[in-house]
Amino acid sequence: MNRRLSLARRASRRAALVALAWTTSVAAANGQQRLSPPQRFTVQVDGHPLAVWARVPPAPRGAVLLLHGRTWSSRPDFDLDVPGLHRSVLEALATRGFAAYALDMRGYGETPRDATGWITPRRAAADVVAVLAWMTERHAGLPRPALIGWSTGAAVAHLAVATSPLPISALVLFGYGPNPDAVVDANETPPEPAMERNTAAAAINDFIAPKVTPRAVIRAFVEAATRADPIQADWRDAEQFICDSSRVSAPTLLIYGDQDPGVDPKDARAFLARLRTRDKQLVVLPGADHVAHIEDTHDAWVTAVANFLNRHTAPAR
Q1: Burial of 39 (0-12, 13-18, 19+ CB in 10 A)
Q2: What SS3 class is residue 74?
Q3: Which of 175, 304, 152, 160 minimizes the C-alpha distance to 234?
Q4: Is the dihedral of CA 96, 57, 89, 117 positive or negative?
Q5: For the chain, how long is the longest CA-to-CA vector?
């Protein structure tokens, strides 16, 4: 616990320092090659339009859906354009033969809020199930899609798989390792969503491991995140995240960085043991923090995830 608190304090100090530096700098391409725009799809779920981004190779051999975290939407999280560096998860997975999709949940990126103004775990999970069904139809000749969730997106993925009969080929939970015996109390919902503005400091908050955190990545992420999500989405009914982990039967990879202050290794191992599936794997990335997928640990993260997906989403040769 003391180690986690120390990491969190260092993260806070680092976020403040880098935020100050960022306000006086501008990210520039300097003539370096940039990412081409991803494909954009609109999937209607219960009459509400959901934005889905994709990078699909000419002949994919598997498909995967990625779910972003609590604060930022899919493009900053999974399709980050960093001049001179390859940090797009969608691009990396597409290069390895996967049709890679990423969903903007309600109130994030280019998916508008619904009439309630809120997003709830069950609503998010139902949307994920619907998008997975859409992907299954779109790629009818491929194995069932895999599902990758990061942070709060991992909690949504866990809930969707534990509560829906829709089969998937594999489940990857990243930056996530909840206490399987935790109790989440219901909180009183405010009368209206807060709709608070996002900040550069909030975008920097998860970058806490200096050895794997290039300034160029931080600048690119802050610019992309605050542009895509100027207003925070508003969650309620967090107690809905509690679900029966023993109902998860899909092959599951649990992956996190050993410098991630939000994951307790003891809880993560207990959580993994609780899953019903016999095919489960734990990968801890040395030196990595909560944003391992876009820092200098990007290649290690992609390799670990792709190796796991290859066992389940790629058709036999």
Answers
A1: exposed
A2: helix
A3: 152
A4: negative
A5: 56
Q: What amino acid is encoded at 155 in this protein?
A: A
Whole-structure pTM value = 0.89
Digitized pLDDT (tens) for each residue of the chain, 317 residues in all: 344 444 444 444 444 333 333 332 333 333 456 789 999 999 999 999 999 999 999 999 999 999 999 999 999 999 999 999 999 999 999 999 999 999 999 999 999 999 999 999 999 999 999 999 999 999 999 999 999 999 999 999 999 999 998 889 999 999 999 999 887 777 788 889 999 999 999 999 999 999 999 999 999 999 999 999 999 999 999 999 999 999 999 999 999 999 999 999 999 999 999 999 999 999 999 999 999 999 999 999 999 999 999 998 765 44
Residue ranges of domains in the chain: 2-183+192-310
What's at 291, amino acid-wise?
A: V
Name the fold adopted by 2-183+192-310: Rossmann fold (3.40.50)
Handedness of CA 78, 86, 141, 249 (dihedral sign): negative
Alpha-carbon torsion, ordered 183, 188, 194, 196, to 10 deg: -30
The span from the CA of 278 to the CA of 281, in Å, is 9
